[in-house]
């Protein structure tokens, strides 16, 4: 039951008079408009109030045996906040004054009463009660809203003093709500900030409503916090200010923008890597074929070796591009991360040798138990080497690089964009110069580098980022100027036993059973190299520059026993060519070569050889296909 009411919706009135006839007359007057409860004994009325009776109005006689009306109403105040009215048959001024002071009566009527006047008095008392409770409800709601809003909310007068504010706003100023009421916010600010506040509030009062985005210090780990501050003039010089923390939303927006940019750049990088891999395939293949035809001239062999080494460095660059663009088909398998790091000892020693007089110490803090991650071991080695070289370059005067491993359980949202689960965390930390927040915000941008011109490509960290993302992991970087940098790779933990490393490539041997091979590639130089490799192995080759020409060869030449086709060709891709060739020759072995792998588009059960490839790689795939 609501205060002063009853289930029927009418207000309740409690009548107290020691004369039953008076109660009957009052009931006859009021029962059409009120739910009437009456008693001839004040003590019983007090008991009813104590038991939960909630009248809107109490109408009491003054002269009653045992307990006068003013005393009864005073005691009733401990149980009820009803509007109180007094009935008296005598002009007892002292009793009325006492009822006003102690019983807080809202009015009194003399006996005998005038019915219309008494009904009007009781009705007005009921309406005051309802209005008072409505106001109290509104105040309670406002207080609850003020205190529970996460936003910073305040009301100020024309002089800028707080009229109302909530705890969130008070906390930003280092005080409590009570201590700040009547104070000016400007008194708690530095002069420059106080001046900016004054301008902002004057603008809001002049324009009616103003909203602005404000950058404030005090974010996580020294970063900025962003507040969306809205100011609305309510009239009469009153200004309401609402401040909402939008830091998380801005960070999410920044991550989405970065993801879009990375995707666009990745698409571009994949296309560049594809074209570059075609060039490298032609260059490396031609150099390898030429090396067998120059005889014993040591000078020419040295030149060919130098050219080959330069081309292989270009091949490493395309691997970085492909890892960044996520177009590189990773050979994911269970890898013993500790064994991989220990096996890099000599490589790191040679690669991290600093200028004369500087010392770079590599420390390893590896997990005592074997940690197995699902990752491409070659790409992980390349990633760790990149991170260690970056660390060395950040320590021009020498320092320490610490490589650590640990298996960790990651909770949801603990690491950005990483699902909850079990991961192997590989950390590379240095004691170098560290990075400013501005540099840290750009470290994953391709081609962004703080190194001197010619000293870095700007692809190291993007490659690492691409590797962990494509492997189903995540990455975090912590860095501050003068405090070094810590890069943590989160790689999916493996359940099985780590696979053994890949052995040395086999020597190239002539084909045991030479066959006729169809070579399909729109790039004439790559096609010539592939055909040259196959011819050196003893195979006979026939060439086609696109898929349509290749289908014509298959229709007219039943002696073709194998097809080697490029994946990315105009008019018809290698995957489409493979499907149509299989429909014509179901048993024809097919090998696709590609500068990048769009696995979703490849036909089923067709092996892929990545450019740039060596003759030994091609020979191994061909031998497997021919059985």
Automatic annotation (TrEMBL):
Any coiled-coil ranges, and where?
none
Q: Does the keyword Phosphoprotein apply?
A: yes
Which keywords label this protein?
A: Phosphoprotein
Where does the Histidine kinase domain start and stop, copy by copy? 271-495
Q: Which organism is it from?
A: Roseomonas populi
- SMART domains assigned to the protein according to its UniProt record, in alphabetical order: HATPase_c, HisKA, REC
Give the Response regulatory domain ranges.
12-126, 516-626
What protein am I looking at?
A: histidine kinase
């Amino acid at each position: 039951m609501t205060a002063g009411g009853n289930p029927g919706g009418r207000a309740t009135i409690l009548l107290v008079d020691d004369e039953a006839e008076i109660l009957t007359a009052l009931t006859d007057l009021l029962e059409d408009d009120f739910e009437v409860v009456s008693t001839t004994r004040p003590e019983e009325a007090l008991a009813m109030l104590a038991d939960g009776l909630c009248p809107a109005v109490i109408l009491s006689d003054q002269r009653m045996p045992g307990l006068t009306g003013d005393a009864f109403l005073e005691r009733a105040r401990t149980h009820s906040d009803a509007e109180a009215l007094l009935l008296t048959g005598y002009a007892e001024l002292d009793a009325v004054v006492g009822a006003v002071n102690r019983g807080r009566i809202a009015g009194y009527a003399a006996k005998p009463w005038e019915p219309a006047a008494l009904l009007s008095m009781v009705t007005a008392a009921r309406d005051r009660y309802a209005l008072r409770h409505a106001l109290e409800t509104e105040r309670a709601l406002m207080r609850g809203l003020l205190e529970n809003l996460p936003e910073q909310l305040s009301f100020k007068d024309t002089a800028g003093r707080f009229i109302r504010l909530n705890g969130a706003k008070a906390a930003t100023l280092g005080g409590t709500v009570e201590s700040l009421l009547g104070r000016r916010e400007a008194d708690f600010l530095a002069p420059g900030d106080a001046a900016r506040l004054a301008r902002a509030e004057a603008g809001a009062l002049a324009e009616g409503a103003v909203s602005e985005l404000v950058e404030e210090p005090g974010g996580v780990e020294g970063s900025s916090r962003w507040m969306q501050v809205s100011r609305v003039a309510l009239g009469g010089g009153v200004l309401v200010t609402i401040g909402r923390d939008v830091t998380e939303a801005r960070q999410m927006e920044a991550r989405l923008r970065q993801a879009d940019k990375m995707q666009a750049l990745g698409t571009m990088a994949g296309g560049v890597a594809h074209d570059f891999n075609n060039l490298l395939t032609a260059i490396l293949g031609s150099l390898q074929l030429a090396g067998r035809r120059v005889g014993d001239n040591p000078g020419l062999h040295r030149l060919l070796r130098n050219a080959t080494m330069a081309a292989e460095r270009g091949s490493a660059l395309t691997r970085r591009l492909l890892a960044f663009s996520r177009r590189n088909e990773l050979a994911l398998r269970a890898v013993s991360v500790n064994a991989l790091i220990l096996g890099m000892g000599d490589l790191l020693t040679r690669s991290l040798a600093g200028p004369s007089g500087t010392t770079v110490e590599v420390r390893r803090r590896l997990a005592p138990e074997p940690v197995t991650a699902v990752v491409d071991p070659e790409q992980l080695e390349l990633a760790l080497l990149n991170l260690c070289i970056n660390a060395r370059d950040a320590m021009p005067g020498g320092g320490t690089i610490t490589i650590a491993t640990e298996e960790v359980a990651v909770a949801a949202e603990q690491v950005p964009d990483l699902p909850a689960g079990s991961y192997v965390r590989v950390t590379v930390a240095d004691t170098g110069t560290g990075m400013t927040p501005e540099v840290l915000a750009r470290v994953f941008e391709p081609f962004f580098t703080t190194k001197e011109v010619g000293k870095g490509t700007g692809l190291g960290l993007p490659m690492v980022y691409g590797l962990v993302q494509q492997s189903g992991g995540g990455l975090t970087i912590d860095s501050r100027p003068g405090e070094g940098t810590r890069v943590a790779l989160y790689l999916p933990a493996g359940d099985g036993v780590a696979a053994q490393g890949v052995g040395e490539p086999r020597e190239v041997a002539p084909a045991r059973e030479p066959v006729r091979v169809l070579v399909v590639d729109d790039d004439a130089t790559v096609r010539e190299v592939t055909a040259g490799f196959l011819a050196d192995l003893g195979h006979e080759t026939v060439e086609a520059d696109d898929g349509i020409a290749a289908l014509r060869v298959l229709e007219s030449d039943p002696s073709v026993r194998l097809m080697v086709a490029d994946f990315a060709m105009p008019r018809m891709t290698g995957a489409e060519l493979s499907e149509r060739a299989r429909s014509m020759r179901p048993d024809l072995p097919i090998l696709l070569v590609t500068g990048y792998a769009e696995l979703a588009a490849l036909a089923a059960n067709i092996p892929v050889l990545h450019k740039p490839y060596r003759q030994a790689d091609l020979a191994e795939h061909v031998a497997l296909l021919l059985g």
